[in-house]
Amino acid sequence: MDQGGEIIVGIDLGTTFSLVAWCDERGPQVVRDADGEARVPSVVSFAPDGTMRIGWEARNHAIENPLHTVYSVKRLMGIGADVLARELPYLTYRVRPGDRDQVVIEINGRAVTPQEISAMILRELRQRAERALGRPIRRAVVTVPAYFDDSQRQATRDAGQIAGLEIVRIVNEPTAAALAYGIGQRGPAAAGQRRTTALPIGDRSKCSGAAAGADGQAAGSDATTLAVFDLGGGTFDVTVLRLHDGVFEAISTHGDTHLGGDDFDRQISDLVTREVQAEFGVAIDAPQTRQALRLLAESVKIRLTEQREARLELDLGAGRTYRRTLSRDEFERMIDPLVRRTIEACERALADARLSPGDIERVVMVGGCSRIPLVRQRVAEFFGRPPYTALNPDEVVAMGAAVQAQILAGGRRDLLLLDVTPLSLGIETMGGAMGKLIMRNTRIPCQAREQFTTFVDGQSSVKINVLQGEREMAADCRSLGEFVLSGIPPMPAGIPKIEVSFLIDANGILNVTAREQRSGREASIQVVPAHGLTRDEVRRIELDSIRFAREDMTAHRLIDLRNQIEFDLHKTRQALESVGDALPAEKRAAVERSMSDLRRLSETCSDADELHRALTAFGRSTLPLAEAAISAALRERSEAGELGPTMSETESARNGRPADEARI
Questions:
Q1: Which of 65, 236, 495, 565 is paired with 280 by a 20 to 30 Å CA distance?
Q2: Biggest alpha carbon–alpha carbon distance for the chain
Q3: pLDDT of 456-487, one tens digit each?
Q4: Tell me, what's the pLDDT at 484?
């Protein structure tokens, strides 16, 4: 609660269920209805007259109104048409591509965006909190999967705005769960209590004051290293965190925005579909039957969590009924590949944190599907310890969001949350290389700056292509957006100083700015990609960065060397035209032969070491020309009454370009 008495609530906007919570001096509490139920189904249905049903009422009437009952909308947030094709077979409502590669849902002849549907759910949660707390709710902390990208986070923020909520912070779901876990270990804070916190030290990125610890060492003897395993209705995340004296530091994260309970349900749905086709020769394509099958599959999954077997029965019409019994063993064989994917993500998160399973002191289970016995068994086998299941996996994320809301409202000063960004970010440089500015698992918020220059004389504009990925070549990374810095005064190549700045705010949203320092010209963009990363793209990005690391680095080095050769040849040609007559004829001829030989080698040679040796030798062979150019410059300055060049200017002339600069 802030000084004006206003409460900031915490919201878990989930794929299957959503919850709202708040926090005071007693700790976080979820808002419940008259029956004690905290969960609100993330389901919205529409009647022909436009009347809406939200939550349990919409879910309970889903079979009667399959074409206009929207569920699992979180899986549609920020995606494009390519990902939509994979979701369509499992949706009973109509979805199609809209403008700018967005996804829209057709409701009674009207196109509705996933953001609007999510806003309806958020509005219902807000009203539920207002009724329970007896005061208006205007601000909220909302959680998202750790692997949500900029577009999906922006879509979540937009949904909040449509619902009349100011989203004061977007928090990764596993990190929110860790906050709730930490509160349970520490107990509630006394009013006005302040504690001294020891912040982790060690900055290993270009981000000013924002590098996540990656050495796997505890910040102190009382630090706890834990993993949050969050398997929800539509998404999966695993985050490794360090807890120390009130500091919740995310070290690494990995996940999959299309892996969750829906995918487990679909294994059962696909089984029934195949068997119905084989037994009755009937395709399950009627919307009502598909909706009934979806709900049946979810029910069977839940029953098999507690029982060894579950009975299935589906009315197919015309006197036909499909019946069978599904055992837990059979179900586990069906979902085993999905569970293995969660363990593979755990392996990658630990590798990024430079930890082994034995270094994890506790594994906190989050999300409804974390109750599945096979999931718990695989987690226990991988980490070598039973998972921690004391927290309600349905409510812990909302409770953590409420804790963060209390921190932001100033009600709690003994806690600090430090999160990370999941993938590296950078820009495309000359020759198609990826220049990384922010590395994956860097602590956010953070800012990184790097200086670039031009490659062509008189270049008056540069195109900034913002990239996301782990490979060394731009073509192997994902483009998040482009913008142009124009109006650069014409200058020789290498003279403009273009500073590119990346800023990731506390919500994980990226802003990029480019500024030419000599002229002051500036351009910027808030990166909002058309849609999110698919599971295959994320996995390919990371695995390819390992598989192709050596050849990627070689290709990047070749590009840098060829760019340097081209630049040095250009500057040498300019120097020959300017002061070449001051050289003896044989030395000038030697320089020209060296230029010809180096250009030919650059065009034909793919050995980076050989090119580097040739470039070094070329620098030595052109030293007399460089000295002649410096002497000429000194004479001009002396005649003009100016001081001689500084050491940095002399070195710049010899090297052909300012140090520590790349070209755009």
A1: 65
A2: 106
A3: 888 888 888 888 777 888 888 877 777 788 88
A4: 82
| Options 150, 158, 173, 298, the catalytic residue | 173
> Active site residue: 74, 206, 436, 571, which one?
74
pLDDT in tens, 195-239: 322 222 223 334 444 444 444 443 444 688 999 999 999 999 999
Domain shared by 318 and 442, yes or no? no
Spell out the residues 6+ positions from residue 236 whose beta carbon is closer than 8 angstroms to its own: 145, 230, 255, 256, 259, 260, 341, 342, 345, 367
pLDDT at position 544 is 59
Query: How many domains are contained in the chain?
Result: 4
The one catalytic residue among 116, 124, 149, 230: 230
Last residue of a domain, one of 308, 335, 362: 335
Q: Is 497 a catalytic residue?
A: no
| 551 belongs to the catalytic site | no
Same domain, 104 and 253: yes
Residues 265, 254, single domain; the answer is no
Decide if 158 is catalytic.
no
Q: Is residue 636, in this structure, part of any structural domain at all?
A: yes
One of 12, 158, 542, 568 is an active-site residue; which one?
12
Same domain for 52 and 182, yes or no, is yes
Domain carrying residue 437: 425-539
> Does 655 share its domain with 528?
no
0.85 surpassed by pTM: no
Average pLDDT over residues 599-624: 88
Q: Give Cβ neighbours of residue 228 (< 8 Å, ≥ 6 apart).
A: 174, 175, 177, 178, 181, 237, 238, 239, 241, 363, 364, 366
Q: Provide DSSP, 571-622.
A: HHHHHHHHHGGGS-HHHHHHHHHHHHHHHHHHHH---HHHHHHHHHHHHHHT
Q: Among 392, 420, 448, identify where a domain stops.
A: 420
pLDDT tens digit string along 627-663?
887 777 777 766 665 444 333 333 333 333 333 344 4
- The neighbouring-strand residues paired with 426 are 436, 467
